[in-house]
Amino acid sequence: MSVDYRRSVNKHFGTTGDMAVALFEYVQDGEVKKASGSFFRGGHTNFHPTNNSFSQPDFIDEYVMKGWEPSSKFVTKDTPIVAFGSCFAANISNYLHNRGYTVLTKGDNKAYITQMGDGIVNTSAILQQFEWAWLNKIPKGDLWHGFKAQEFGYEESVRLDTKALLDSAGLFIITLGLSEIWYDEVTGEVFWRAVPKDRYDPGRHKFRVATHTETLANLKAIHSIIRQFRSDAHIVFSVSPIPLTATFRPISCLTADAVSKAVIRGALDEFLRGHGDDDRLHYMPSYEAVTRLFNNQWEVDRRHVQPHILDFNMQMFESFYCTPGLSKDSLTKTFKAAIEEDLKIGMNGQESDGLTYSEIRRQKIEERREARRQARIRERVSARADAKRMLVRKAAAPGKPQSKIKRVAGILSKVAIGLLALQGVVELVT
């Protein structure tokens, strides 16, 4: 909540022992409050929300997006979007794609930023993709590997696909994930992820935490190269709220994760402060929205965000950045529903029915498989129905005897019924 210090300072005096203390009044969430006026607070002051703040209709504007909201919405259904990095980029890609926006990294291409959209998470690895695509800068070692440690080389056709995506982008959504990195001591180059077990060489492969200085330098380099090749594109940076699964440091993962995020968030904030003149450079506070607004934001693994909170985060992006986007009333309703669900989980616990994390994970995998199978069945049934209608229309063309039309329609009906029955048998077997 913003308060004009200069108008309200020194209005009241309180006492502490024998000392007079200058106080000033301010209004937060409709309530008049007092605070120490002994120190100059600048031209304006923004206070941290209280529990009462959450019920305010302007909560998201005042306590989350203030200072970060763009001057005008700039993402349309036709804006070519390239999103990669950590989880927020993947989630926003899926969300915007399903909402009808043009997400290039959801298309069919060879680019690694499409295949590994949420697996390129440190600033060095993200910078590598831009330098490879636009500058043809090829790493000296084999640094890029997939989720199953399969090697991703530096094939020219993949580079050109990546370049085509970057050349076409009107918006870059880049999510930063972690600061713990593995690197090749001989070349100084950083791996995407860890080193594959069968490639690990203790003589040259080392681990460290990226420093604030190098993270800031990488962010400046990413910004510079984008402006060199896509001067008019918008850039939205975000930080993933997902914590480390494990740390390679000899300390607890909880404390290591706090450091990993702090390095990223601190460097990103310094970078943004130094580039305030770029009105197409933005920050989306997804990290703060997840970690600061809710008390029960995690699923049972304490790493993945609850669906209702993730949905609120995605809608917040659409509401503030997209046009026509979502109305503020719609976003407020989603936020209130998420808060209510958060409270319900806090009171009743998570609905895990006593299942272990592994059992819940297997259950969700099966549910996704079943959903995909049902979607394929619906597509096949729809395609066969379309084919049947097409044949009937052809049979009913002018000049065709009516009796022949009926015979053809009858045959087609029997064939369709037979195919559907066979489809059912096949699905049951598989």
Overview of the structural elements:
The chain has 430 residues and is an alpha/beta fold. Helix content is 47%, strand content 13%. β2 (12-16) and β3 form a beta hairpin.
Please outline the major beta sheet. Answer: 4 strands, parallel
The total count of helices amounts to 13
Quote the average pLDDT. Answer: 87
**Proportion of strand residues:** 5-15%
Secondary-structure-derived class: alpha/beta
CA-based shape: globular
Radius of gyration: 28 Å
Low-pLDDT windows of residues = 4-16
Strand order in space, largest sheet: 6-7-10-11
**Cα distance, first to last residue?**
59 Å
What is the β-strand count?
A: 11
Order of helices and strands: EHEEEEHEHHHHEEEHEHEHHHHH
As a percent range, the share of helical residues equals: 40-55%
Quick recap of the structure?
It is built from 13 helices and eleven strands.
Secondary structure: elements and pairs:
Elements: E1 2-3, H1 5-8, E2 12-16, E3 19-28, E4 31-36, E5 45-46, H2 59-63, E6 81-85, H3 87-98, H4 112-115, H5 123-135, H6 156-168, E7 171-176, E8 180-184, E9 205-209, H7 212-229, E10 234-239, H8 253-273, E11 281-283, H9 286-293, H10 307-321, H11 328-348, H12 357-395, H13 402-429
Parallel strand pairs: 6-7, 7-10, 10-11
Antiparallel strand pairs: 1-5, 2-3, 3-4, 8-9
